[in-house]
Design a protein that fits this description.
Bound molecules: adenosine-5'-diphosphate
Strand content: 15-25%
Largest sheet: 5 strands, parallel
Radius of gyration: 21 Å
Strand order of the largest sheet: 2-5-8-1-9
Structural class: alpha/beta
Distance between the termini: 47 Å
Helix content: 40-55%
Shape: elongated
Order of helices and strands: HEHEHEEHEHEEEHEHHHHH
Number of strands: 9
């Protein structure tokens, strides 16, 4: 039985670029705000190419050993256990490191030899040096919008990757995506996307991040399930954005003038 391919609506030529990167054994960097489709894109491409996908959500405690593996105690013995990156290199597949800039600095040390033409993963602890097979691909993502200088990728790391920039799709395309995801008719989705675009204009002034495509999908799904538009907008598109009463009032004002 073939596994179904996660639905992904292409915005530009990113699917072809991904295929080219895979064929040419080049690593890929996806940049863009949270909730705009990066993870969905990678799972879609992995399924299309018939490759296993190892996804790691990076966080500030994530170390190189979390990716490569470690010795674990098992029934009195210490047994080496591969981490997700090592498994992808040993068995072939895509390793996707989501929000890679969050990870500890030692992670870049294991990524460098994998992202140049050697394509090797040295495992100091086991003494192995694994050569990545042709069907191994490394994909990383990050959100440049956070503007955290401490947490941007160093040129020596980023210049090892091909890059694709993701952004929220234009009105009609985003409407189609959300209608497809939620089952709500396009004519009822469109005003939600218009509202989201208005709220996105406030990014940088009062908001760190604009409304993601993911949140509009939540909102449309709630409406489809019978919730009133006002309540769905409040819970899916306002509350998740801010804790500040003044900012929330400003957002609600945008809702009042837009709807
Ligand atoms: P990111 O990884 O950028 O944070 P996700 O890939 O998790 O975001 O996207 C969030 C949700 O938005 C997805 O689960 C999907 O419902 C929807 N989505 C966003 N962009 C697309 C797209 N181009 N095609 C299909 N669904 C999309």
């Amino acid at each position: 039985m073939t596994k179904s391919i996660p639905h992904y609506v292409e915005a530009s030529n990113e699917c072809t670029l991904f295929e080219q990167a895979f064929k040419n054994k080049l690593p890929l960097l996806l940049k863009g705000p949270t909730g705009c489709g990066k993870t969905r894109f990678v799972s879609h491409m992995a399924a299309r190419l018939g490759l296993p996908l190892y996804t790691v959500s990076c966080h500030d405690d994530l170390t190189a050993a979390d990716l490569t593996g470690r010795y674990l105690l098992k029934g009195g013995d210490t047994v080496w256990t591969d981490g997700p990156l090592t498994r992808a290199v040993r068995e072939g597949g895509i390793c996707y490191l989501d929000e890679v800039v969050e990870a500890r600095k030692d992670v870049t040390v294991v990524l460098h030899p994998l992202t140049d033409d050697r394509r090797v993963l040295p495992l100091d602890r086991t003494g192995e040096e694994l050569v990545a097979p042709d069907n191994f691909m490394l994909v990383v993502s990050y959100n440049p919008g956070y503007q955290n200088v401490m947490k941007s990728l160093k040129p020596s790391t980023r210049q090892r990757f091909l890059g694709v920039e993701f952004d929220f799709p234009e009105l009609e395309l985003e409407t189609k995506i959300i209608a497809g995801e939620s089952g709500l008719e396009e004519d009822r989705v469109r005003p939600l996307v218009r509202l989201a675009n208005k709220l996105r204009e406030m990014k940088g002034q009062d908001l760190e991040e604009g409304v993601s495509t993911r949140l509009i999908v939540y909102c449309a799904s709630l409406i489809k399930a019978g919730m009133t538009v006002d309540a769905a907008v409040l819970h899916a598109m306002i509350e998740p954005l801010t804790d500040e009463p003044d900012v929330k009032e400003g957002l609600l004002e945008v809702v009042r003038v837009t709807f």
